[in-house]
């Protein structure tokens, strides 16, 4: 059955979704199992001894042959060193995208009619150009690049969000971005104003906060095991803290469990303790969200909603602080880690079958690439009218996620250097 493909290469994980053609319409996008039945593939590339690139976390590696979070270095003149060999970040990103395309091709039995790949909202034309060139060098000559904030909005729209003006809050493993989006006359979305973001804040900070707490509480026990014993016990601490973080999104208490030579050691953590640890980090992202709104001279009453994406947005404190700052609906999908990929698939449907033009919505500030005066929409009534009432909070559904096993499939790697 003909299909289109959406891809999101995040700082921590890569996801993909397909929408299939059914007559004159398209089915709702479905996540693609990229590894061991899971839709999540770690955004990691490892240079094997035979010179091929392999996707996913290696079983063993000293770090010199493995690279992560290379997407944010696209356009950087300084190459990434893998096994002592320089590799352009855009080439590595294109290799990972090509692996996803080939994986989906094998599962579907045919090539996609269109491919949309998301990218950080703050990218300028140069970074998109070098990635397009790298994709073309690997045979992917007709990939559409769209800002992640746009694909997030497209995904929420497919699930029923009907607003014209919204602000997107995307919190990944090691990055954060926020930007205003507006509905175009064709019913799609575009980014407006100046996107805000940080490439050093994400869900990994939440894990590290828990890990630091566990190390502090078990300092005496770890010291008693000796250096090697402590290193062995701490090897899986970050993965354990990620598990506890997810448990605390639905439960009020959880235990960080470490295996010591003397037996299991447990560090009880309450949700209140965890939220106190991460509150400064979450507040910093909310401040950037507000800056994106103020930078466009909008008031909260002129927004139709806040659209969330990224696995870390399942933490209840995120919705709580956003709702306290902006009295508008906060929309979060059941599996927020897949939002950008499913939205990219929705956008790919429009590449093949563009929607007819609709009456233009009220104008807001010009897109990032545009200039000139604009007219703001009239203020709308707030969703709550009694002074002091808290803004409405959406229900948050938490789905358990399992990390995929490392991929053992090799990629043919490009040896040419790009300018």
Describe the structure.
By secondary structure, the protein is α+β, with helices and mostly antiparallel strands. The strands form five sheets. Strands 1, 2, 3, 4, 5, 11 and 12 form a seven-stranded mixed beta sheet that branches. A five-stranded mixed beta sheet has the order 15-14-13-18-19. The radius of gyration is 22 Å and the shape is globular. The two termini are 39 Å apart. β16 and β17 form a beta hairpin. This is Molecular chaperone DnaK (HSP70). Keywords: ATP-binding, Chaperone, Nucleotide-binding, Stress response. It comes from Micromonospora ureilytica. InterPro entries: ATPase_NBD, Heat_shock_70_CS, Hsp_70_fam.
Q: Keywords for this structure?
A:
419 residues; alpha+beta; 7-stranded mixed beta sheet; 5-stranded mixed beta sheet; 10 helices; 32% helix; globular; stress response; ATP-binding; nucleotide-binding; chaperone; Molecular chaperone DnaK (HSP70)
């Amino acid at each position: 059955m003909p299909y289109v493909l959406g891809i999101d290469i995040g700082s921590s994980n890569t996801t993909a979704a397909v929408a299939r053609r059914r007559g004159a319409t398209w089915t709702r996008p479905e996540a693609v199992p990229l590894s061991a039945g899971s839709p999540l593939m770690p955004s990691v590339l490892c240079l094997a001894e035979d010179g091929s690139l392999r996707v996913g976390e290696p079983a063993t590696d000293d770090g010199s042959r493995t690279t992560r979070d290379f997407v944010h270095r696209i356009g950087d003149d300084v190459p990434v060193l893998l096994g002592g060999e320089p590799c352009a970040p855009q080439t590595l990103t294109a290799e990972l995208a090509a692996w996803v395309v080939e994986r989906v091709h094998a599962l579907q039995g045919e090539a996609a009619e269109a491919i949309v790949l998301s990218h950080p909202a703050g990218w300028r034309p140069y970074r998109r150009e070098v990635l397009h060139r790298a994709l073309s060098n690997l045979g992917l000559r007709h990939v559409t690049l769209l800002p992640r904030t746009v694909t997030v909005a497209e995904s929420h729209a497919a699930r029923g969000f009907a607003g014209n003006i919204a602000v997107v809050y995307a919190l990944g493993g090691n990055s954060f971005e926020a930007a205003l989006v507006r509905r175009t006359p064709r019913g799609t979305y575009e980014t407006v104003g100046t996107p805000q973001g940080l490439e050093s804040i994400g869900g990994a900070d939440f894990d590290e906060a828990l890990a630091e707490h566990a190390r502090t509480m078990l300092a005496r026990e770890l010291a008693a095991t000796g250096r090697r014993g402590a290193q062995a016990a701490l090897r899986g601490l970050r993965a354990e803290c990620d598990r506890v973080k997810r448990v605390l999104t639905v439960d009020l208490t959880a235990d960080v469990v470490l295996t010591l030579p003397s037996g299991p050691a447990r560090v009880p953590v309450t949700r209140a303790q965890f939220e106190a640890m991460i509150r400064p980090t979450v507040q910093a992202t909310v401040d950037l969200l507000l800056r994106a709104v103020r930078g466009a001279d909008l008031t909260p009453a002129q927004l139709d909603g806040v659209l969330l994406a990224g696995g870390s947005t399942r933490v209840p404190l995120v919705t709580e602080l956003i709702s306290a700052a902006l009295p508008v609906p906060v929309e979060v999908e059941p599996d927020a880690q897949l939002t950008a990929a499913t939205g990219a698939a929705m956008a790919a449907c429009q590449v093949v079958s563009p929607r007819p033009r609709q009456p233009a919505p009220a104008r807001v500030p010009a897109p990032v690439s545009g200039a000139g005066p604009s007219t703001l929409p009239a203020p709308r009534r707030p969703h709550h009218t009694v002074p002091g009432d808290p803004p409405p909070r959406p229900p948050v559904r938490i789905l358990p996620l399992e990390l995929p096993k490392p991929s053992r499939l090799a990629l043919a790697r490009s040896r040419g250097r790009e300018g």
